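USER:
Class, as today's exercise, take the chain set out below, and explain how the chain folds.
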Amino acid sequence: MLKNPIPKVTNELQYRAIGIVKGKFIPNDIEQLNRGYLTDNKGEKIETVVLGKALSLLKKHIDLKKSYFWIVYPKNKNTQSLHFQVAGIWDPFQLNDFPNDSSKTNFSKLLNELDLKDNYFSVRGELVFVNTQKKEVVIKICSVSKLKNLKNKNFKLVIKGELSHELLNSFLSLDLIRDGNSLKLLNYEVIEKNLSKKLK
């Protein structure tokens, strides 16, 4: 069974922002592997933090000279400043118990079988802002975590693309593609209109 790096949603109104990016991870300091940059095949660098569970994978299995498919959570303040949090590494063979040599595997082909591709992002959240002049939209993503001490429970993603003002406060499922430091809208689906009115 091929493990999907971006799992199917379990709930219609499930918030999320997750993507898959191929690149090399270059730590700022070899003693502290949790901060650095992800460099893609075009040489573009994205500031990156490696989260706890992915850090142990990184230490045990990852050759920093090689490119991998990284499962990442995106954050940004604007369309020029993308930042990643690494949640995992997608290598179906090396990191699972497949009796296969992953160095001979065409991962792009495997991703296609899962209807995914490099630099694809799945974002689900509430449309809270539309800027028609700049052709940008803002999606609010709420964390479902019960932990009280999380600083950034909710966050917003700025996306390049055009959506109607009529969709404001609606819950959307969006397919995005990363282009440099920007996330661009490919297509979207309205899951629930006027979400905020229904939550009150």
In short: The domain at 16-118 is CATH 2.40.50.140 (OB fold (Dihydrolipoamide Acetyltransferase, E2P)). The chain has a mean pLDDT of 86. The beta strands are 16-29, 32-39, 45-50, 68-76, 82-90, 120-131, 136-142, 154-160, 171-179, 182-192. Helices lie at 52-61, 107-113, 195-199.
